[in-house]
Amino acid sequence: MSDTKELPRKPQIAQAERKTRFLEDLWDEQEAARLEARPLDLLRYRSNLLGADLRITNFGGGNTSSKFDLVDPLTGESQRVMAVKGSGGDLASIKNSGFAILYQDKLERLIARYRGEEHEDEMVGLYPLCAFGENRVAASIDTPLHAFLPFPHVDHLHPDWAIALAASANGEKKMQEFNARYGHKIIWVPWQRPGFELGLMLKRAVEANPGADGLILGGHGLFTWGDTQRECYLNSIRTIDEMGQFLDEHRTRSGQPLFGGAAVTAVVADRETAVASILPYLRGVASSNRRVIAHYDGSEDALTFANSAWA
Fold first, then answer.
1. N or C: lower Cβ tally within 10 Å for the chain?
2. In 3-state terms, what secondary structure has residue 235?
């Protein structure tokens, strides 16, 4: 019997009331309809959309999952499985082959095997035994965080706007303000290192808060979910966008300049030429131990921070 039961849902906020200001809804209904019968393809599509925008999650960070039914190649019977981003993958570029696929019931049975937080590292060695069919993609340490949440589709992302709230000294209080301001019911869970114990903490937190539409892990990141892949995607981008709006309004009210204000003013007639001449030297210095590739960000946000007093 499954330990993960469906919980009552919070009524969805009308779409007209949840327009995004910063993020764009990139979901293509025709493309999604083409993939509808292949849930792993649709999960890959959703993941690629989320990973393509670094305001939503950082390169290589975050993970997505979907629970759906597949025919067991051994028994021929339908089985509930969970597909979750494999260890070390990147959402923007992940292919179907990058997802670990595991038996959902086997993952839930691991709860009875768990001997407590001091032994949680031993649980990682049991994840490969839950692999579905011939799938051998390494399941990440975040696997139980998705498996034990009672929702078909889950996004765990690290947007800067969410982390700004999660890492604030008064983050829990600010999350209460955010919930009241935007009509959310996002749960605050204190920081706990990713792993089996955290998966159980999230499970208990959702069970204790029926109707929750998201979860913030203190100092770490954001969890959002949905009954469909589309609903999950919309919940993610709208929640993240509203967090951006919340922080922008807070900054405006404070009247304080960003990052303590400008400390220097860089005046370069030909910035691109200057970068081209300097970057190879910096790359060479940074490659003394192992080879690296340099990346240049000349956006207004990057320059504002680089020239600021706090930088």
1. N
2. helix
